[in-house]
Structures
1.
Amino acid sequence: MTAIVELDGVVKVFGAGATEVRALGGVTFAVDEGEMVAVRGPSGCGKSTLLHVAGSLEPPTEGRVRLAGRDLAGVDPVDLAAIRRRDVGFVFQRLNLVAALTALENVMLPLELDGVPPRRARSEAAEALLQVGVDQGLTRYPDDFSGGQQQRIAIARAIVGSRRLLLADEPTGSLDTTTGDAVMELLTSLPATTGTAVVLVTHEPRYASWADRVISLRDGVIVDEVRAPAPDPGAELAGVTP
Amino acid sequence: MAVREGLLALLGESSTHGYQLKTGFEAATGGVWRLNVGQVYTTLDRLVRDGFVAVEEQEDQRSYRITEDGVAELGSWWDAVPGDEPPQRDELMLKVLLAISQGREQGLAVIDRQRTAVLGLLQARRPRRGARPAPAEARSLAQELVEEALVARAEADLRWLDRCEQRLLATGGGE
């Protein structure tokens, strides 16, 4: 397996002096292509910062980040934005779709910003929407869709153009359970159907357990990592005494 | 719950032989509670003694049926709800509480170990990607509901462990 993103000894500090906050205290981990990793931890433990650094939205204070095989240290902001557009998609709890653009236009947006010709952008966007189960009303506006459908459109925008890493920060946080389950089933299926690696921040234990690997953060460091075992119908849940 | 309530519930349906009660009990409870035949007959004897069950003998075979008193006893059991005072002596809860009593670090260490184990068990039951659903006849409704109960319990344990961690971090170390 090839790692799509690698963090090596990443420290992230916000502020300075009395207001200094050490959000990440030396994190080392990698996500392979086609892998799904869930990140858990209490509020303020550094989960979102980890996503932002992994997706090159924030530079690390110390340590190295490699994205799609490229060390991001010293890469200028314009190149960094291009790498991000090509390889990384983000999905957030809040449905950050552009209200004035149609579903199709929202998904075309990152491609157009990357200079993809309109016809090809349109075709790839429609294909991405199809992959997430949105095949109707592509020329309607976000407000015309339910919350679950809007999140699907946001996921389409995050994976369009065969991006290899999807970073999702509590993507079911604003959805009811049934809709959240459907969105999670979609996210879980992406590694197999598109080869996209998914890093999911979630406080929901069940959704975390759907990932190949679960990482727990506390005070900015990884305190635990659990890899999914082969399904075992005979596993005993009661009376855990390791 | 004891075996007696389970047998009364099954006898509510029809007159039955002891071995049928054993297999019926196991099927109805999704296979989570295996009975031996001796246990079934001992319990039936007590139910007969207490007047909740009547026994009939035909051609060397004993069959059992529920009496009116048995129906009333069963009705009381259906209506009873589990109390939460005092809380059940749950091993996980007691272990974590005792660990926290030893100090913050021990509390967090035990929370981490227990959470790892519970998460692993939950992962073992995660939906398999691309797996076709098992044929309907392969698993009974009771077995599926047992599975769902185990998942729900593990989720609840994880949420509680998360809560313990949050409370400990907020009160224990000033971080």
2.
Amino acid sequence: MSKRALIALAVVLAIACVLPFVVSNYRTFQLTLALIYSIALLGLNMLTGYNGQISLGHGAFYAIGAYCAAILMDKYGVPYWATIPVAGAVCLLAGFLFGLPALRLEGLYLALATFALGVSLPQLLKYHHIEKWTGGVQGIVIAKPDPPFGLPLNQDQWLYFFVLAVVLVMFALGWNLLRGRIGRAMVAVRDNHISAEAMGVNNAMVKSLTFGVSAMYTGVAGALGAIAVQFVAPDSFNIFLSITFLVGVVVGGLASIPGAIFGGLFIQFVPNIADEISKAAPWAIFGIFLIGFMYLMPMGVAGAIRLGLARMARRAQNSRPGPGAT
Amino acid sequence: MDAFLHQVLAGLATGGIYASVALALVMIYQATHLVNFAQGELAMFCTYIAWSLINAGVPYWAAFFMTVGFAFVLGVLIERIIIRPVENAPVLSVVVVFIGLLVILNSVAGWIYTYTIKTFPSPFPEKPLFGFTYVSSHELGAIGVTLVVLLLLYSFFRFTPLGLAMRAAAQNPESSRLVGIRVGWMLALGWGLAAAVGSVAGMMVAPIVFLDPNMMSGILLYAFAAALVGGVDNPAGAVFGGFLVGVLENVIGSYVVGNDLKLSVALVLIIGVLVIRPSGFFGKVHVTRV
Amino acid sequence: MALLEAAGLRASYGQTLVLHGISFSMEEGAITTLLGANGAGKTTTLRALCGMVRTRGEIRFAGQRVDGRATEDIVRLGIAHVPDGRGTFANLTTEENLRLGAYTRKDRAAVETDLERVYGYFPRLKERRVQQAGTLSGGEQQMLAVSRALMLRPKLMLLDEPSFGLAPLIVKELFGILRAVNERERVSMLVVEQNAAMALDLATHAYLIETGRIVLSGTADEIKSNDAVRRSYLGY
């Protein structure tokens, strides 16, 4: 990473660490959620942005992660931090398994298959045969974690830093993955899968793995989400969640790691802003925001920033005197 | 046996509605290679307009045709004003615009008309026709209306110069420009027609499921599945898919798993079909030359 | 007044300038050929004339400025473009393709006569009138593309590499028909070709383009006897 990028990252991190001490608890909670969503969005972005497979059902993996955490904490007394890796592992497997039959489906057909997943899961969660684990329609309530080692933080602040730490780990892992061989293979499959196969990339393996990893990220986010909200119920994970994730990825910027952060902020805060503008039809305002964003930044926030920086660089280059000029 | 026959026929009635919406989806897909996720909400919104007209005292069929006309104009306007600016944007960005449109339509309908369920009248008589008790006369009427609409559309595309121009513009916009076809307006017309067809579907289904802003979301999903099962580039396939899905849904809902899970099961079945035949029953298998 | 005049035409694809300010003209009734190697800018020139590529410079057709106008409007002025690759509507029938050529015309009866006349030039198309156009052979699709253009009753036909991928005998047949159409119906033609020999036999005038610039112009006979052209493009 360039020196400039590292400095920018350090500045952003510094601001992030200071924030919970200067804003209200509720705001901190909202920022925590935005961070949690950004993990989910990074997962979806890997699948859709880097690997070109669309998913309208990632809410299902979020739900699976959330329920993992809730059931482990509620029924088996597992401490909250231990549920995260379990949720991740379960979703990695679930995503990989879903990715296998989905291999034959492209574009629209995959969209429908994932849509079916997203629609079915809440219904399945309400199914009375598994009610004793899932708590049926009422769901499960869990306790908010306390800061460890008697640190001088309140619960919201502790949760914020816990999530921030997970974000850093997951994003670092993701950055490493996407820059390496597997990341390049993912993009190769997206751009021209025939050539990729001809060059020795195992398309099926790459696609299923990407599904698995993407589901893992979203599952981790789901577990964190359950802990933050202290509650899981089937109706919180309906198809709108999946659609919101897709919107977040596109608005944030496809195939972009910082795009996930922008997307997370968008899907957390813009509905609130819309609500403040109009109590009567807040989603209409949200819809207008969506359309407006796509008119102004069809490549998402990250894409717009990239274009802006490129334009500034070109301008700086043009104004510098060329060779042989006096 | 009686009950089964009733379920199948009722399935055909709802299937006709799915077929209409599926056809609208395929029409826009063929022209733009985009799935119009807002199709259902457009239909729902227009059905509310019909409801307002009828409530204001306008006789049913007058309101029906006025609504179809309104839907057509609305479709054209939406394409020219909202979709045109993102014509060249990446596919997913356009999908987000569709989602925005969907959300706006749903929310505005809820705001103007509230979320309480309303009844919508049927133009067909209460009593079953010819004493045929397997299916209500509305359901029979709905099948009939669907078939008339489909026949009109088919004739339009097959036998009129404008229909030919629209088909050409959808298949090959560049060559179409070279023969003087205004491709942009063909697209707008396509949207207008799709919206009109959708509004008919909405008005036929509202008496059965009752009118509320979320009326069409399940239907859109089934229509989407129907279009894919039939082969998304094949209008006749979409119609076949619609009837198939309608019957499947009813039979599964009555005999296999109650109404709660029928959506999931039907979808899983459809996915199963697609995994075996990825282009749907009648879709063109795309052979890519390297 | 020349039928077609281009002055200082510049065209780019993205950041790359492909036409560096070319100027040419053609008279009514002429068959002009634009010769050049692959990538010289011939197709771009035709596309510029049709408004399919953004250009700077002036283009006049029958005295009217047409640069900057939309393709659909330029067609209505009587310019028919037979594109590179034929541009067939593959999923429509042969006859539907032909009728689309006449889409902008209002004189229904005359369209029917033109349809029969076109079938007269190309009886093979009549045999295949209800066949899907995509299933026609390369030569037949080329004939279809030319016929579609004729259905416009154009004043000017632009043809982009009509001999491409066709057997020499078919090219001879096609070019014979083009000459007949030019003589009988006074349709002017601008033909872009890589096959210099056959093009110079058909044409009355010729231009030579190299990397986006016109390097030679004159009557077909003059160009045919030019030494440099003979060596580089005619092979003797």
